[in-house]
Amino acid sequence: MMKQISINVNGVTHTRSVEPRVSLGDFLRHEIGLTGTHFGCEHGVCGACTILVNGVSMRSCLMFAVQADGCKVETVEGLSHAGAPLHPLQQAFRDQHALQCGFCTPGMLMTLIELLSETNNPTEEEVRDAISGNICRCTGYQPIVEAAMQAAKAMREEKV
Amino acid sequence: MARQIGLSVERLEDPTLLRGGAKYLDDLSLPGQLHVAFLRSSHAHARILRLDVSQARALAGVHAIITMEDLEAYLGTVRMPLSASPTKAVAPITPYILSGREVAFVGEAIAMVLAQTRHIAEDAVDLIEIDYEPLPVIMSAKEAIADGAPKVRMEAANNVLNRMHVAYGDVNEAFSGAAYVFREDILQHRGCGHPMETRGVIAEPRMDGSLNVWSSTQMPHDIQTNIVEILGIDDNALRIITPEVGGGFGPKYCAYPEELSIPAAARMLGRTLKWVEDRREHCLTAVQERDQFWSLEIAVEADGRIRGIRGELIHDQGAYALKAVNLPYNSATAVPGPYMVPAFEMKVAIAFTNRVPASSVRGAGYPQAAFAMERLMDLVAKELGLDRAEIRRRNLIPPEKMPYTKPLKARSGAPVTYDSGDYIASQEQVLAAAGWNDFRARQAEALKQGRYIGIGLAHAVKGTGRGPFESGTVRVNPSGQVSIFTGAAAMGQGIRTTLAQICAEQLGLTADKISVVCGDTGLAPLGLGGFASRQLVTAGSTVLLASREVAKKAKKLASHMLEAAEEDLELVDGKVKVKGSDVGVTLGELARVLKGAPGYAFPPGLDPALESDVKWQTEALAYSNTSHVAEVEVDVDLASVKITRYIALQDVGVRVNPMIVEGQIRGGIAHGIGNALFEQMIYDETGQPLTTTFADYLLPTATEVPNFETIYRETPSPLNPLGAKGVGEVGTIPVTAAIISAIEDALAPFEIRIAQTPLLPETLFNLIEDSRARGLPHA
After folding, report:
1. Nearest CA to B96 among B419, B320, B395, B271?
2. Looking at the predicted structure, is the pLDDT value of residue B687 above 80?
3. Which end of chain B is more exposed for a tag (fewer CB within 10 A), N or C?
4. Which CATH architecture has domain B33-135+196-247+252-285?
5. Domain finish residue from A35, A56, A78
């Protein structure tokens, strides 16, 4: 049994027929080829598959694609395009060495995009709390926190 | 020559990773691929009585189901080769590619389903009918080696894989003449590696008989050797490619059954196959560092100087060995660490149990050795009423004794020689940074407020840069762009950037002009891959020497073209220039000349290609040293531990990219925090794993890991042309020892002795309750 759905991903609407059991993450990765969203556990704990659905962070492994029918989805691929400058948060990750293997990075970025949309002046504690559902095995988290602080500052100054 | 080594150059890897454009294994999709799911044993030990795949095979979308019988008929064997070994296994110790008669741990692969989608493949796995006859299960390494214990595998002679005896000096004399002898029993467990990207394999057979295999691995060259051996395929027809690897941490430094069963089935059926391990499978099938039971005795003089150490170590190997067993040897030989230990003896028993095989996780046996030794140092300090730093100062190898040879042998057979470092100065420096001497006053003040704070100190040394060699070709292309091909394996550590920096400095370039190909046996057919904190030392030295050769050749050719003496030339901004002038020729132009053109001769004395191929060799290990201080606060009612401060001093020799080194150290410490407080692969008595999700198996998250204060000393290693020492595992090794020491110090009023890792909250809670039952702390 297939169901037809339309999902707007990073500004482009994709219409596909999918099995109801296909997760939103699998839909993004394997139906429309946006493989920047990663699966680390497929049970909602590691946070690597975090994306924004209608502006709110979601675990794309815990949501079915059919549940996102008609929704606006944002993934890491929407933050900046090859050739264009990195998004200030991406640039901060590079400056602070906030990624090593890069596998958790898309989920970290999308989680922090949500935080920075709620506050442009977070405390270190708020950043740590925001990413407490995203596991990173490489960095020890400190540079990710520093990157979030740098990005917040850059985004504040951009607005001024 | 513009400096590149020593600069925190931004990583070449980052832009693609940050944009989500990197291709990890599961991001690859090949035309016509089928998806694989495995039927895995649900018993820790059982005989398989019946296997019926007919119903599963009939499911729409299922293409084939492969069992041990099918593979045996096709391959002539179903036994894994022994990896990372110069010789073949002599006893049946390796796992089966697929198992069909007897299974010896939960998760052992029995059958593989090939289907149109992963969903269908997993549906079909559930339709396979299997009857087991349960057999006795051995979960404890101690019980496994007891007389009369039931066998972990019926085919094995007994449950002992091996016994080792590591010794030097007159141990009996050391103990009989000692002022004091103290004893400690320790249980250690480090859990799983858990890279955020799990394992995965794609195998693509082609019509011409060739086979491409992609694997998320740290050892593509060993996988190549294994597949050639098992499939009998021409070496030239096989290519192993590692795509972007989302972390290694040890578990990807093994060749696994799936890395043979999938290529074999692909070739058998002529279909491209893809399998991606899920997290539960990683918990069940990826190697772990599990229980080690240590019994130790230390003999000291009246002033605390060590006379000797002796003891026993029982190591849980699991049901099989995937490769030459190194962990318990590392653990046993690393005990003396940075200290002078005149006499030493360890008896090691490596026991089979009904669990997944053990092998390296970041640190590879060294953290356990450091924990054991540092616990002994704390014990002696306590018993003799000495400060924990003072007992260490009296026993650390002083700088004037460097290089310091221990009468132990490394795996290469070479003696264990510490090449350089000042351990006493390292201790002084980290203690000063930590305010060690003021801590007692702060602790007393906190205690008045009912707060239990503590401080701990631990040292470690780590032999890094394991040989025998690593490969590297440096080639300048006619475009002026430079390519490096190496057998080193990239797994997220930034090795491409580091190697590019080393090359760039020699060629007068910046790192971004250089591209580095890692982990592709088609492009770099020889190499050893990523393990033992080795690649900066080995691949780095190789690339340094190759780049120097290329620079020399460029000058030689430019000297002909510019009619200038070689010594008047320099490499700057991608050109070979006459010093002090604008006259020069680009590296690309030089490469074009040496690329050759039909019939044109090369200038005299020059041979084809602006390139050099080097395989730098080493037998010795470059020893990094590290001294860490942890401060903790313990909530004695909740038995929760907060790490309030962490100061980490490292001497990792010359740092090529200090930013990357810092990243490695911080990540290493975070891993150590997991080992100290959280990470344990728990099984019930029947061998069923209980921690197969990240909700049950706890990894440290951002709210448990503090900010780290790092200090670097930079004593160049004399053993390699870079002066480098490895860094990847160094941060992890002393962490459990420093944190447990700090917790014990915080709980001094409870007189608690902690001799195990990880220290889970319930364990600490029980220790505190036991003390309270004994009337502690005294009012």
Report:
1. B320
2. yes
3. C
4. Alpha-Beta Complex (3.90)
5. A78
Helix or strand or coil: residue B54? Answer: helix
Whether A83 maps to a domain, the answer reads no
> How far lies B182's CA from each of A10, B12, B185, B294, B457, in Å?
65, 52, 11, 14, 20
Number of alpha carbons in the 13 Å side-chain half-sphere of residue B70? 19
Is the CB of B698 inside 8 Å of chain A's CB atoms? Answer: no
Same domain, yes or no: A32 and A61: yes
The reported pTM is: 0.97
| CATH, range B288-465+619-773 | 3.30.365.10
ipTM: 0.98
Task: Supply φ then ψ for residue A148, to 5 degrees.
Answer: -65, -40
Are A95 and A51 part of one and the same domain? no
B60 touches chain A (CB under 8 A): no
At residue B568, the pLDDT reads 97
Q: CA-to-CA distance for B131 and B385, rounded, in angstroms?
A: 62
Tokens found for residue B523? 């492009």
- Is the distance from CB of B101 to CB of B111 less than 8 angstroms? no
pLDDT value of position B674 = 98
- Burial of residue A5 (number of CB atoms within 10 Å: 0-12, 13-18, 19+): buried
**Contact criterion met (CB below 8 Å) for B200 and B276:** yes
Do A42 and A29 contact (CB within 8 A), yes or no? no
Say if CB B46 and CB B150 are below 8 A apart.
no
Q: Are residues B663 and A143, on separate chains, in Cβ contact within 8 Å?
A: yes
A16: which 2 tokens? Answer: 């596909």
| pLDDT reported for residue B81 | 92
CB contacts under 8 A, B 103-122 vs A, are: 119
Does the beta carbon of A10 lie under 8 angstroms from any beta carbon of chain B? no
Q: What is the CATH number of the domain that holds A149?
A: 1.10.150.120
CA torsion sign for B597, B598, B602, B607 is positive
Per-residue pLDDT tens for B16-62?
Answer: 999 999 999 999 999 999 999 999 999 999 999 999 999 999 999 99
Q: How many CB atoms lie within 10 A of CB B334?
A: 25
The predicted pLDDT at position B14 comes to: 98
Residues of B in contact with A106 (CB under 8 A): 20
| Closest of B610, B656, B657 to residue B482, by C-alpha | B610
Q: Are residues A114 and A142 in the same domain?
A: yes
Give the right CATH number for B14-18+467-617 from 2.40.240.10, 3.90.1150.10, 2.60.40.420, 3.30.365.10. Answer: 3.30.365.10
Range of the domain at A142: 88-159
Q: Is the pLDDT of residue B346 over 70?
A: yes
**A156 close to B (CB below 8 A):** no
Residue of A nearest to B14 (CA): A94
Percent of chain B as helix, strand, coil, to the nearest 5: 30, 25, 40
In a domain, A120, yes or no: yes
pLDDT, tens only, A56-106: 999 999 999 999 999 999 999 999 988 899 999 999 999 999 999 999 999
Distance between CA B357 and CA B317 in Å, rounded?
6
Q: How many domains does chain A have?
A: 2
Domain ranges in chain B with CATH number 3.30.365.10: 14-18+467-617, 288-465+619-773
My answer on whether A61 and A100 are in the same domain is no
Say which residue the tokens 């400056």 belong to: A95
What 8-state DSSP symbol labels residue B20?
Answer: T
Residue A160: predicted pLDDT: 57
Same domain, A92 and A113: yes
Scanning A61-90 for CB atoms below 8 A from B yields 75-77, 79-82, 86, 90
B505-516 pLDDT per residue, tens: 999 999 999 999
Helix or strand or coil: residue A156?
A: helix
d(CA B99, CA B260): 13
